[in-house]
Design goal:
Length: 401
């Protein structure tokens, strides 16, 4: 039994941000009902697949969910959803505010049928601002939030991070926002609307270190934390590969300077303490880069580990799959998907001593649970047949058995 066992979630999200959030809720034990259009989540078509609509991208962020198809543009589809909302704890969507208004599925509408509902809107921009109606994707948010510009401090021109960081940051934020609202409801019985916009979430994430000298009014220095934006902050080349090293504390630098035969650098005014090192970080990290090219990765690993300087090998995706630590803790699991065969399941990172997270079901086929879920919510056989006949829902099994 997970920590959210007994909580029922209606998931009206697609792509990555919302599905990542709801997958975590499902991993924690919630019953997540993924409501899809007849066309399905677009990520069903992304990446290699063995069967149509079951792409690898979709498989990786939609476990622990049941798929129900509802055409919400059809009056019967909307009415079916409202009937489900009456019996659910959480409703989350990732549609733009004007789109959710057109469907008649705003918080004001849904709270009428379920006042205790936790309603989460996860979309691009806070709806009462001038950007409220703008469409948003990860690339757009990385650009406007300053993340791409921060990368440019290292590379000389703006770059996106090689990952959908804005989507995933916002998805994680939506998880804790929903949990906070559920906790409040547990104490007071009150439902509420929760707004989780990508732009504001990612700006908050980005500026924790990069507001830097602009924190003070008037400014006490420039924007951007110099240590993490240095062009020399990167995996360092060795004689036979690359290595990740962070020499940080005074004791680390004392050991490192001795290790490379330059103990006198500890008395250098540029490197004598953390403040001085931060101001001269480019020179310092360039020195590290040059030094690490003199030995093999294994030689440096041995030396740095002995000196208790943080160090790790550089992994690519294939390397992660072979990592001995991840193998020993069973982080990756080979599982048999009912329709997709053997796949690799990514582990849940958090460990609970009493209520562990686990995978109860793998990513569903489009509409796989339409009939099952509708029955649970009190729809009669004739009503379900009518929804199937009108194209409001689909049943890939082809019958109502």
């Amino acid at each position: 039994m997970g920590v959210l066992s007994g909580i029922r979630v209606i998931d009206l999200t697609s792509v990555l941000m919302g599905p990542f959030c709801t997958m975590i809720l499902g991993d924690l034990g919630a019953d997540v009902i993924k409501v899809e259009s007849p066309e399905g989540d677009t990520t069903r078509l992304v990446g290699p697949s063995r069967n149509a609509g079951m792409g690898c991208f979709f498989l990786n962020c939609n476990r622990n969910k049941r798929s129900v198809v509802l055409n919400l543009k059809h009056p019967q589809g909307r009415e079916a959803l409202l009937k489900m909302v009456r019996q659910c704890d959480v409703f989350i969507h990732s549609l733009r505010p004007n789109a959710i208004e057109k469907l008649g599925l705003t918080y004001q509408e849904l709270s009428k049928v379920n006042p205790k509902l936790i309603y989460c809107g996860a979309y691009g921009f806070r709806k009462d601002g001038p950007y409220g109606a703008w469409p948003a994707y990860d690339d757009i948010i990385q650009g406007i939030s300053g993340i791409a510009a921060a990368q440019g401090q290292m590379t000389g021109e703006p770059h996106y991070v090689a990952g959908a960081v804005a989507d995933k940051i916002t998805g994680l934020t939506a998880v804790y926002a929903i949990l906070g609202a559920l906790f409040h409801r547990e104490r007071t019985g009150e439902g509420q609307e929760v707004e989780v916009p990508m732009f504001e979430t990612t700006v908050s994430f980005n500026l924790l270190e990069h507001l830097y000298g602009l924190t003070f009014l008037p400014p006490a220095g420039q924007a951007y934390y110099p240590r993490v934006t240095s062009a020399f902050r990167k995996p360092y080349r060795t004689k036979d590969g690359y290595i990740s090293v962070l020499v940080y504390k005074d004791k680390h630098w004392k050991s490192f300077f001795a290790m490379i035969g330059k103990p006198e650098l500890l008395e250098d005014e540029r490197f004598k303490d953390l403040q001085a090192r931060t101001e001269h970080i480019h020179e310092l990290y360039q020195l590290v880069e040059e030094a690490l090219q003199t030995k093999t990765t294994r030689e440096w690993m041995d030396l740095l580990e002995k000196a208790e300087i943080p160090v790790a090998p550089l992994h690519d995706v294939e390397g992660l799959l072979e990592d001995p630590h991840l193998q020993q803790i069973g982080f990756f699991e080979k599982v048999e998907h009912p329709t997709e065969g053997t796949i690799l399941n990514i582990g849940f990172p958090v460990r609970f001593s009493r209520t562990p997270a686990h995978t109860q079901r793998l990513a569903p086929r489009l509409g796989e649970h339409s009939v099952e879920v509708l029955r649970e919510f009190g729809f009669q056989k004739e009503e379900i047949q009518q929804l199937l006949h009108e194209g409001v829902t689909i049943n890939p099994a082809g019958d109502l058995a």
